[in-house]
Amino acid sequence: MTRRLIEMYLKNKTDRKYIGYLSGGVGIFVNILLFIFKFIFGTLSGSIAITADAFNNLSDVGSSVVTIIGFMIADKPADKEHPFGHGRGEYIAGLIVSILVLLVGFEFLKSSFEKILHPSPLTFNIYTAIVLVVSIIIKLWLGYFNKILSQVSSSGAINATSFDSFSDVIITSTVLISILISKFFNITIDGYIGLLVSFFILYAGYNLINETISPLLGEAADPELVKKIVDSVKSYKGIIGVHDLIVHTYGTQKTIASLHAEIDYKTDILEAHELIDKIENEVSKKLNIVLILHMDPVVLDNEELEIIRFKIKDVLSRYKYVLDVHDIRLVDGKHKKNIIFDVVFSNEIKQNDMGKKAHEIINDLHKILPNYEIIIHVDNMYADY
What we know:
Blueprint: H1 2-10, H2 17-45, H3 48-75, H4 89-117, H5 126-153, H6 156-185, H7 190-217, H8 223-234, E1 239-249, E2 255-264, H9 269-287, E3 290-298, H10 303-316, E4 322-332, E5 337-345, H11 354-368, E6 372-380
Helix pairs in contact: 2-3, 2-5, 3-4, 3-6, 4-6, 4-7, 5-6, 6-7, 10-11
Keywords: Membrane, Transmembrane, Transmembrane helix, Transport
Protein name: Cation diffusion facilitator family transporter
Domain Cation efflux protein transmembrane: 26-217
């Protein structure tokens, strides 16, 4: 039923922002409804606990507002100050909601400690139990609703909003269970149960923050996307190999990738340019990205260079931290011929140690290639393929 309602709403709405608006709008409506229901019942019954929980629902409206604002910012077009668009605004919204989840965990941890240090009997009231059960059911549905939306949109912000609802379900369920145990077994354990739940919420909040900070910092490219890019480019006749793939994401709807494509140096320059343009356009449309290709001419009929390539790759295969070697070329120098190539080190090699490692490789190569000057350019591995 829930999925069908979502599909009906999104049927003629192709923009991603509408998913965020739906999540935020439903969240605002549900939490205001719960606030009114609990506030009226808490006031009439004189229950401070229910009244306090009502204002907790009112504060949850803030999470939904943040989600809407995040999607509004992400939907803004590119401008002079932000030429790649504002897509990362959604990540910021997710980060804020994740921090709110973390704050809920800390607050619950604090109140649980207070209950352990100063235990007090819980009073069972059938009306209070009904209010708590209704709240649990509604919040459970809201969490499930947002979980579906997060799966449809792959949105970290909506995923955080979903867990925000589920954390309320856990907390309210803890209160209800504690009341029932206190009623039927005359044992006060709400503080200890609350302690366990608070640790769970804090751990989940920490993971949510990591998930939303990671794309802001610049996380590694999706392996599936990397494979699709590499396989797509290599599938074209005339492409010998690829290297130096870099993928940047500016929100879920904006991905820019750059890649070096190797082409036989004998290929006519106009034909090579036409091929590169064709690949850029077709792969960009196919994968919904912006692909930029750099053409690297490769010499394939130089016997001397082929022998050098073989020797270099044989030596570098002994270095576990060397992931790739490419652009091996032979250039005439003033006194000796220069062998120039790029080498890719694994991330275990620190930036400050790369020069030293490159020098070690050069010394090893000089033993088998003494009549050449060897120049190494060190590359980073930005995408694993």
